[in-house]
Design a protein that fits this description.
The chain has 187 residues and is an alpha/beta fold. It has a single domain, classed as 3-Layer(aba) Sandwich (Rossmann fold). Helix content is 32%, strand content 25%.
Length: 187
């Protein structure tokens, strides 16, 4: 897809190394919770836009293997954590946040699915901050045993979705220790 060379993969190994080697970008929400992103949005925008197509499953899997899997492998923490994908409903045959979450599985990270769902069907894609403020996602939290959580989403723009998700988890007595996203859309 990137170099247009013949490959059995959607993105050849050479392009994955050259163009999809992740970096770590950090910002905070609620003044203290770190949000780590592996790419700048503009770096992988065309790949992220594939999420609403059948091809998106393969692209998100490649991105997750190059970023979330190595993070999980190298992440050391004293206790067992749950990783929770934001609103991991299956749409278009798959859930992009579930794919990312799946690649966090490690010795002390347990991916949990269908644990954080928005009651509001509103989409924030392409919407401004004012729209997002006026249309909260209203997250519902299903039970799970772990007390500490890594929150997973594909893109952080304003941070409002992650903030609402953190608040919903906190209201159930869960502690979000960090958030992980594929891309940071901050300009």
């Amino acid at each position: 897809m990137i170099c247009e060379s013949l490959s059995l993969l959607h993105i050849c190994k050479k392009c994955q190394i050259e163009f999809l080697s992740p970096s770590l970008y950090k910002r905070k929400i609620l003044g203290k919770i770190p949000v780590y992103s592996f790419y700048k949005y503009k770096e992988i925008e065309s790949l992220l836009l594939s999420k609403h197509t059948d091809l998106g499953y393969y692209i998100y899997t490649i991105l997750a293997k190059n970023s979330f899997s190595p993070f999980a492998k190298n992440f050391d923490y004293a206790s067992e954590l749950a990783s929770i994908g934001i609103d991991d409903h299956v749409k278009n045959g798959y859930s992009h946040t579930a794919i990312l979450n799946k690649h966090l599985k490690s010795q002390n990270i347990r991916p949990r699915y269908a644990r954080l769902r928005a009651e509001s069907p509103v989409s924030y894609s392409g919407k401004d901050y004012q729209f997002r403020l006026l249309n909260p996602r209203k997250f519902e939290v299903a039970s799970f045993k772990e007390e500490e959580v890594i929150l997973v989403d594909d893109i952080i723009t304003t941070g409002l979705t992650l903030t609402q998700a953190v608040e919903a988890l906190h209201s159930k007595g869960k502690k979000v220790i960090l958030c992980l996203t594929l891309a940071d859309a901050r300009k």
